[in-house]
Amino acid sequence: MMKLVVVLALFTAVVLARPQAPVDVVEYTNENDGTGNYNYRYSLSDGTKRDETGTLKEVQGDDGPAQIVVMTGSYEFVDDKGVVHKVTYTADETGFHPKVEN
């Protein structure tokens, strides 16, 4: 059993130590008005992308009115086979709502 653990640890170390292609930032935007409203986006040279917008919203909570940030956005990445995976989502007072696209 100990040999198996050592072999798995060595295998993991080799996989993690393999050279990785450098990834560059292609686009980056970050805007925040300081009141809960924001927008940011970035894209990387490996096809990874992220875009999110937050908007301040007043809702009725258990203890009266409350302010929350409602978020909408998406992210995507390219897997090892070249397939693009994209997730769009909203997050509000009802929870996180993702939609996965392939």
Structure explained in plain terms:
With 102 residues, the protein is of the alpha+beta class. Helix content is 16%, strand content 58%. It has one domain (22-101).
Notable characteristics:
six-stranded antiparallel sheet, alpha+beta, 102 residues
Compute the number of helices.
Answer: 1
Main sheet overview: 6 strands, antiparallel
The overall number of domains is 1
| Total beta strand runs | 6
Q: Given the C-alpha coordinates, what overall shape results?
A: elongated
Structural class: alpha+beta
Q: Give the spatial strand order of the biggest sheet.
A: 1-2-3-4-5-6
Order of helices and strands: HEEEEEE
What percent strand? over 45%
Helix content: 10-25%
- Could you tell me the radius of gyration in angstroms? 20 Å
Unreliable runs: 4-8
**Quaternary arrangement of the chains shown?**
single chain
Distance between the termini: 40 Å
Average of pLDDT: 85
Quick summary:
This protein has 102 residues and is α+β, with helices and mostly antiparallel strands.
Topology record:
Elements: H1 2-17, E1 25-32, E2 38-44, E3 49-61, E4 64-78, E5 84-92, E6 95-101
Antiparallel strand pairs: 1-2, 2-3, 3-4, 4-5, 5-6
